[in-house]
Amino acid sequence: MTPACKPEEIVISAIADLLGAAGHIAVGVLSPIPGSAALLARAKTGARVSILGSTEPEFRSNEGVDVFDAAGQGRIDAFFLSGGQIDGAANINLTGIGDYPQMDVRWSGAFGSAYLYFQVPKVILFRDEHSRRTLVEKVDFISSPGVSEDGVYRPGGPYALVTPLCVMMFDRAAARFTLKSIHPGHSLDEISDQTGFKFDIPETVIETETPDGATLNLIRGTVAQAIANPYPAFARDMFGV
Amino acid sequence: MHQTQFFASPDALAAAIPDGIKVAIFKDSGAPMEAARALVRRGARGLHLVTVPTAGMIADLLIGAGCVDVIETAGVSLGEFGPAREFADAVKSGRVKVKDSTCPAIYSGLQAGEKGIPFMPMRGLIGSDILASRDDYETIENPFSKGDKIVALPAIRPDVALIHVALADRFGNLWIGRQFEQRIMAGAAHRTFATAEKIIDGNIMEDEKLSAACISSLYVTGIAPAPDGAMPLDMPGHYPMDLDRVEDYAVASGGGENYQVWLRDHVFAKPLAAE
Q1: Is B268 on the interface with A (CB under 8 A)?
Q2: Is A64 in CB contact (< 8 Å) with chain B?
Q3: Helices (H), B42-167
Q4: Which of B26, B27, B8 lies closest to B16 in space, CA to CA?
Q5: How many CB pairs under 8 A join A and B?
Q6: Given a cut of 90, is residue A135 above it in pLDDT?
Q7: Which end of chain A is more exposed for a tag (fewer CB within 10 A), N or C?
Q8: For residue A168, is pLDDT > 70?
């Protein structure tokens, strides 16, 4: 008997589905759930996965100029970003809240986002808190913009947003999110209530697929083992490895 | 050409780094923590830090101890140990001026510096508030493709690159292993100071394997021995991060008396390696 599917396992599986046929998936720092999803996609499709911070030769990537040069040449197909705030136009804020520079709340800073968001074709936004605090109408500071005007070279950009409640797809031409699926146990009312930006709701909203037994075995087996480097605490708490 | 100078200790090395200059430091893994503690002990002031391209505890410590006036960075965070609170507090209060950037922009600026050219063009950034906040970044037109906008980043020439390496030799050569961005730092900086886990008598450049991952003594102004010099952070291939000590720091940081106690016990009392 397989133990009940955890909410995080549904999210991991949903992100892996979004990755589709991406050939090279890169994972940034502090990203255990996207990292698990990338490893699940790899187990299913044979994708190459680079995990920043991993010391495993198979997943190790040079964390310096190489990753940015590779992205600049189109050698990275998918990447993950997040934000202290994400708005309805997929602008992300990793810098802080309030008036810059002496902000009321100061976060870390943009890291590589102000470049990689432009360069990587499929950027999946993952945020582990779905609330009006995190998903806002307009970010206080644009660490990296969701869309760009004509004349700006931009082969990449936002593809989807995944939260503990739902999956939303991003339309770059309209600069808007559309709800795609709601995770089991959650409702459209709850999502509308907890989302600070306007988004489109299609006629039919499906439930996010619960991973099947084979997928769960992959998540709890090869994925759990591999994500333990570089995320030992996450692997222990989530998968007991 | 000058010869590399050898210092007896990180404290002697820190005494050769003057106040008020632009200092580049490498991101957390293998960061020159003992050299940073020595800078704190000597009461360094007015430094302009350039983090390559991000930083954690080392930048937070130098800021918390009052050594820094300006920080140019793609991000400062204690990673799994949470926000860099001394950094955040100093930026919020205006005590430290922050020049926000993004990782490849810092690398690109340094690469322009090492090539001796005035700027480097880079994709991305356009439409961000980072670009809006940087009056030294310019959006230009690609001279080879009309209408194609691209950002020009000025060369970064730090006065000093401060690094920690696994191995140095008595000729002043440094072995940097996989962390070859340190070579970009040394190339861009006017002077490079290094602490080393070990200083050997031979010449690293005689070894085909080692010499592939070296900074030549041409770039190296000074070296001091510092076994466990990255502690409590990790030194790749040598030791892992001391999680408890980093967590102690994270808990003590954020202003106030606890932080002063932490500085007294962990910086001023004695070099960490001697404990």
Answers
A1: no
A2: yes
A3: 57-64, 85-93, 103-115, 129-133
A4: B8
A5: 128
A6: yes
A7: N
A8: yes
